[in-house]
Every structure is written in structure tokens, then in C-alpha cells.
């Protein structure tokens, strides 16, 4: 409808998000943290092509859907997913009422922030611990818990707030696409309630445009003070084939722009690549061992193996973090 | 939608949804299909109060979440939910390949459009038939199927397109709230894929703001032509306690404005009523046996019993369709 309204007003001077914005963008560099390399040129060329009226590849506003993975794509994910640091801190907090945890794995390792030992406890034990922290609480309580944590907790080696580890070049990309009327969505394996506590403030993406892994929830009338209770039980895993499933369920349209950094994003890329409109697939490749981390095919976190091959075969854009970005972090 | 378009174009130098728009609204009647009665006055008074800067009840734009039920709230639902007419027509279409259906219930009744017999077949048989029609198909195929149907199928007694049975006063209300920067969502027991095939065109609400009942789906790489397959299996029922659950999952924020017409909407109303901000709950009461239908406490479709009592007890706004609306249908 926005599009319809804009069309109806086409003769009128200024309507939100139209030429004035675009012109400003054209006169300055919309992606200053990107070096003047192929990836940057490809992005700008795509955006110009699909948003210029009269272009053979023009995409109507309502179909300008862009989906971004979060961990490793919009912020760092080493030495492990930041949501796991939240989990460890929460376990430590809860351990005051669970004296038995100090000798029991994986709780002991979590309380001690012993990541190496924690990772050796197996997926099932880790998963159950994550569920324990993320369930048994109301949605409102969980939101406050994450907000409090993210405002103060520091990364173990970088010693800064986790939100200071978002990538400036990607923030610029979000803003750039937004200026051209793309609707931005995060589609992440991370927890939906965990992300929504801070993503709107940090990325400017509204809660209802955040797609993630969900726990089962239930409504409780609670004697006239209704709450949503989060249960310690997985409902939907927004990873691999789950990403296009989540996109179809939450967004209802196929993306024309899709960005990720791991094999967990591959199906989302394939889905976007099947769009009838011209489309853009972008892989962030972690090549910067000095400013960030360098890892790909053999990394347990953020494995990029099949994705790297498919990107090469299909001509998707692969961002070489070390060489393509002049700045890594910042809002 | 015409209303929103006019608003966007009327002012110079028009910026969508800004103060200029608000002034335009003040100078004309934003709800012309509503008689000058208490319900209309209450709506306008609420919207003015919560959107005027400096008001004690001011609600920031990002929290102006409005949720609307669909069946019986935005369009009619008699003699049964319109999605069931789609189901019957689809069964009739499929019956060419199922000669055994013509003697087997509930298929026989569906093929014959014998609603009375159909309703006697029990919930389980009906549910299985609905699943049969809504599953076993790709999301893209299903979308096309519904689009084709809704463009041509006629209501059995009104003899007009089903989309001609949307309520003009409610369309005006959607446009009015949108002009004041409310973000509109449909939260319906209807199928999410069924609605998304036509709701954006009819209500101007984007696909990712449509919350409904979902089937399980899966991603199929399909030899390089990826598709989402809809399975004939229920995933989530967006009704009663499922409505606040769906709101929390898809929207992530509590509504400040909520509209429904049945007991299936009661939990959504209770949830909105618990908002820390001033909030508005609206029940459409079907009282017009001439222009629409008259039913409430004892109707098998759209039962409004507990909701009517709770609305009276809590002072929620109940719209008397016969007396409050000077026009019922229209876009």
C-alpha cells in the first residue's frame, strides 16, 4: 500500500523515502567503512539497478525484502555465540539457589566461564542448560533480564560491551538498504526473545521484523494480570532449512537480498537466489585475525564450507573482511 | 485505502504520517461510515489522547501496535467462515480425481455445498478435510490457488465477491489508525497463507503483519528450484489463548488497540487491556439482521458470550453494527 500511495503521489514534490533521500545518498558515500572494492561496487550497482524506475530489473517496494543473519554477519560470534555468554552469566546468577551445580557439568563449566570444558559436554547437555535459562520465566521478565545483561556484560577478550562488537560496514549496509525502501529482517539461529531485547535499539529493526529460534510459550490469564510464559522447550529452530521456513512463516515473501556468514545460512541464500526478481546473496568471510577473527571451513562456530563452494560456483558476493572493510566495529 | 492515499497527497510538502496529516484528519471526518455515537467518539478521543505530544497518555510511535481479528471483525463470517467456502470449492475441484468422494462424507457435502450436512460431520472430519486442502502443496501454489478463487468466487446468498463483504467502517478505522502511525496487524484464527493471498491488496496490511493459524511447512531444495512445502498438519492455532501467544511470537509487543467480535478474541483483548499504556478494546457486535447478520451468545460461528459480559464489566467499547454504522460494506 505504501507503494500504491507513492505511485498515486508521484507528481507531488516530496514523499518520505523518495528522491530527496536517494539524491543525498548519491552525493555522498553510503558505505564509507567499505574499501572501494568489488563487493562494495556490486552492492551499489545492484541497489541502483533494482530501485531505478524504468530499469528492466526494477523491484516494487513491497517486494524489497532483505534478510540478514545476525551472529557472525551483523556482530561477532567468537569465541562462541554471545547468547551463550548470557546463558553462562545467568547460570552463575541462578547458582546461588543451586549449590549442587558447582560440582555438576555443564553447570560447573558455565559458572567458571570455562568455555573449553563447556564445549566438551555435548550438544544435549548444553541444549538443556540453554532451555533451563531461557524458559521458566515470563516474556516480560526475560526481556528485562537480557536488557540488563546486554547493558553491562563485557566480551571476555575484547573487554567491551557485546553491542560494541557489531560491524560498522554492515550497519551502513542496513541503513543504505533502508534508504532505498528495502524492508529489513533479521533471520537468525539466535533466540527471538533474546534478540528483540536489544536489536531495535542497535539496528533500528522493529521487533516484528526479527525472526529467530523460538521456545514454546503459553498464555496465562494469571488472575487478571495476563502474561506469556516461556516454556523450557524448543518450538522452532531457525537454522539451515529452518531459515526459509521462518521466512515464509514470519515474512510471507521471498527475499531479494540475503546476507549470512555460515553454512547455516545456505538454505536462506538458495531460497533468495530462487526469487523471480534480480537478487543479491552476500557471504561475510571472516578473514581478519587481527581486528576480528579468521575462520571458515573447519571452525566449530560459524562453519563456512559448503557455502563458500556454492558462493564461488554461483557468483555470490563474498566479503573479505580483512581487505574489504577499512573499519570493523562501531555503530 | 483511498483515504490513506488522499491523506498522503493532500498536503504540501507532504511527508507521510506526520503532523500535517494529523491536521487534515482533524478538519474532515475520518470515520464517515460511523454514526455520531459513543463508539465513534470513544475511538477518536482515544486516538487524539494517546498521539498528542505532551498528553499524559502519549504512546511512542513504536508502541502503537493495533491488532484486528479478521472473520466477523473486518469482513463477514456467515453462514460460515469464508475459508470454508474456499475449502468446499477446492474439494469440488479435486473431486475429479477422487470419484470415491461423491459418496463419502464430509466430501459429499462439501462437493454439494450442503453446509448443514457438512456441519454435522463433526470437528475431526471437517478439520481433516481442511488440512487435505491446505496441505500437500507448495506455498507458491497455494497462494495462486487462493488468489484465483478470491478473484471470482461469490458468496452463496449475497452473490458478491467475498472481498466485497469487508466492512467499510472498519476499513476507515484501519486507515485512521494508520494515519496516526499505529502499526496494524491482523491476528486471526484464519489460515496465514489463506489471508496473505489477498489481505495486503484489500486492507493495505503487509504480509509480515498478518498473524494466523499455521500448518507445518518444510524447505525442499527441489533440485535447485527451492520451495516451501505446506504439510497437511496443524502447527499453531491462532485462536483464544493462541492469539496472545501469536502476538508475542510474531509481533513481540503488546497491543494498545485490539478489535474482535467473538469469544475467540477474548484473550487477545485481555492481553491488550493489560498494557501499561492507555489502551482500547473494541468488540463488533453483530446486531444487523437486515444488512448483515444478527448473532451473538448462541451462534455456532462467532460466539460472543463471555466476551459480551467482560466488555460490559470492563467498559470496553461494543459496536452496535445496526445503530453505529450508516454503511456496512465497501472498500
Automatic annotation (TrEMBL), chains A, B:
Signal peptide feature range? none
Residue spans making up a coiled coil are: none
What would you give as a GO molecular function for this chain, any one? hydrolase activity
The superkingdom of the source organism is: Bacteria
Which keywords, in A-to-Z order, does the entry hold?
Hydrolase
This protein's record includes keyword tRNA-binding: no
Q: Which SUPFAM superfamilies match?
A: HAD-like
Q: What is this protein called?
A: Haloacid dehalogenase-like hydrolase
